[in-house]
Amino acid sequence: MTEFDVQPQPGSPEDYVPLPELELVELQAMLDWLSTYGADPQGGVTRLLYDNAWSEAQHALAKQMADKGLVPAFDHSGNLYGTLSSEGSTSFDADREAPYPIVTGSHIDSVVHGGKYDGAYGIVAGILALEYLHKHFGRPKRTLKVVSLCEEEGSRFPFAYWGSRSITGVTTLEEVQHLLDQQGVSFSQAILGAGFGPDRGLEPAVQTYGAFIELHIEQGQVLERHSRSIGIVSDIVGQRRYNITVIGEANHAGTTPMLWRKDALAGAADMIVAIRRIALQTGEPFVATVGRIAAEPGVGNVVAAKATFSLDIRHVRQEILDRCWQDMLQAFRRIAAEYQLRLECEEHLSVTPTPMNEKIQQDIQEICEREQISYLHMPSGAGHDSQIFQPACPTAMIFVPSQQGISHNPREFTTETDLMNGFRVLVRLLYKYGYED
Amino acid sequence: MTEFDVQPQPGSPEDYVPLPELELVELQAMLDWLSTYGADPQGGVTRLLYDNAWSEAQHALAKQMADKGLVPAFDHSGNLYGTLSSEGSTSFDADREAPYPIVTGSHIDSVVHGGKYDGAYGIVAGILALEYLHKHFGRPKRTLKVVSLCEEEGSRFPFAYWGSRSITGVTTLEEVQHLLDQQGVSFSQAILGAGFGPDRGLEPAVQTYGAFIELHIEQGQVLERHSRSIGIVSDIVGQRRYNITVIGEANHAGTTPMLWRKDALAGAADMIVAIRRIALQTGEPFVATVGRIAAEPGVGNVVAAKATFSLDIRHVRQEILDRCWQDMLQAFRRIAAEYQLRLECEEHLSVTPTPMNEKIQQDIQEICEREQISYLHMPSGAGHDSQIFQPACPTAMIFVPSQQGISHNPREFTTETDLMNGFRVLVRLLYKYGYED
């Protein structure tokens, strides 16, 4: 985080259009409505790419978009757009020759037993923002769109960011069509079953945006602990994920003296302690997590022959990720030698850090100051579609607080005041890009 | 271990009866034969209490006993005796008024996919020893018995040492009859199905022994690494087993700074490092093992809310077990406080250390010296039926080397030379107690 100490400043009201009746927008009611699609009996929401709940939610959103004066349209991948065309345009296709549209939105899919804000907030706020702007200011000078991205979480297929990856052309259907979900259903069966895929008369997935703006819950506790209302995302962290395997020798827990052991689990424990020490030495925003561990044979009275654990490291700078991984690897090798263990490290994910567009960050900051909404520049420790869009178009993220930082959980919650603050900033930003010169 | 440096000394042959033709005894052949009962297709042996392989093995052994001149008899529990009655006695019952018999033997059950030596060696060697003594020296002055104990491993029901516990009266059938195996079969169904239990006209299980001598493979590498042929067991270690639960808070691996975490798995890792440090500081024969660990939710990108791990500590002195556990508990509490975790410790096994009978140990040492067999006084780090018998009668254990210390594994192996050395010591000891005054 940076600029913890920037306090909100009063705006200069003379050149600033006031926003009428913003308090009447029913964000919370529409989030509650959307959460009925895929509602779990035990609370929470499960909407997985192309499943029934997902389909019903996207089609219900398309109807909402039409009801609110937007032109709804699906693309090949099942991404749903609601378009508010610029002056003189009347149809989705008519503004092809105009400057690329400004797009806001987020993802409609959820994790298993997720909350009702993750993703959904950015879509609902986008639809209501376009409705509000249209109602009060008429058609924009530049086309505005809200997108309900088909997939971000990677909850169904072992692949994430399908929505933004297919829009930016980073990934094609050919590359993912053979992926299987946990029931053995292929990606291509799933997309066809939901009524999408090529040759359906839909818009192609690949599109060019003038800018992408994603309003999202923080999913952490940084804003709450610093009592700020808006997070202006500076960077989306880079991530590396590893599977670490430590191989020793199974032995009888009673008959094998300590010094003769090749105890894979004892060695793994020492490595996990080293990971935390290196993370603390590196300092914020570096984080390192071991969330999964297993020992084999995994019996209380047998010295473990093998231990495997996960490692997830994140930072906003690539060179710090590189250095910390090298430090950890060195510690692992030293411990493996000390314990007489064999070490295997497999990297299975590597995402480079993505700085968000600086100009849009400045505009968000200016809006916060004028609207007297407290804010914080902060990195996003979680991955988002915005990191996929940023290389293709100017992209920014606006965070609102998550109560107690809880997310991916039915207890996910953001107060109506915080939801409205985020909405206000989004409306202002879309007004600026859509209606000002 | 003690007395590493005692070298074998030549015996004084003048008052020492030589053992004729000992090299003709076919220990290995009989072990191979016995291992056909419950032989696994992939190698190894699985004989679980009262199952078919177990029943066939016990009845085949009863026939072998009869063929070799012993009187076979089962008791209520399915323990099988082969009796060589003292002079003047002709039947199993005839020596009831005589001094209590000297008993040797071990257990017939195995672990799942066990080896062919564990337990079996003590039974086979006992039968062949009694046959040999009978053949060369006639009836003993004091009744000798070999026992094939029905159960020691706890592999089928969640209860171990049923054979020795039922003989010493420590546990009755009433106490275990409701236990269930993994298929849901009750202990009482199993014992009745195998043809045992009360009211079958069998001997009662509770019996009084004059002494119990158990010949067994070491199941460790101490003898092999010290190049000794015989282990004279000084003590069977005491054991404590615990389930340690560490409770923190699940958090997002990306959005939760290191210092705000309550990472149960990181705390558990630090505790496991502390366990090893305390074990190494305490020194041999103290051993501490963490063989099992699990984290919840157990996902690579979620800070663990909960970690559970096993702890197994062993030593020959109760006060050292007490002190080490207190040291570990203190370390756990310090770490839990540092990581902001809640700690729960559950002891689920506590076995006090059992010193073996000193007089019999001396007699074994004397035999080794006279027979010029190298030996070592050493504790047993594994549990054995002998620890159940010791409080009831003078008890001793004789170990032979296990190649590479491998046990509870189809690769369990002891050389014929080592098997014969153990047999020679057993024969000498039984001769001394059965035939000398």
UniProtKB/TrEMBL annotation, chains A, B:
Its EC number is 3.5.3.9. Keywords: Hydrolase, Metal-binding, Zinc. Its cofactor is Zn(2+). Zn(2+) 2 binds at D118, E153, H408. Binds 2 Zn(2+) ions per subunit. GO terms for molecular function: allantoate deiminase activity; metal ion binding. It is an enzyme of class 3 (hydrolase). Zn(2+) 1 binds at H107, D118, H216. Residues 238-339 form the Peptidase M20 dimerisation domain. It holds the Pfam family M20_dimer. InterPro entries: Amidase_Cbmase, Bact_exopeptidase_dim_dom, Peptidase_M20, Peptidase_M20_dimer. Allantoate binds at R241, N301, R314. It comes from the Bacteria. The keyword Hydrolase applies. Belongs to the peptidase M20 family. This is Allantoate deiminase.
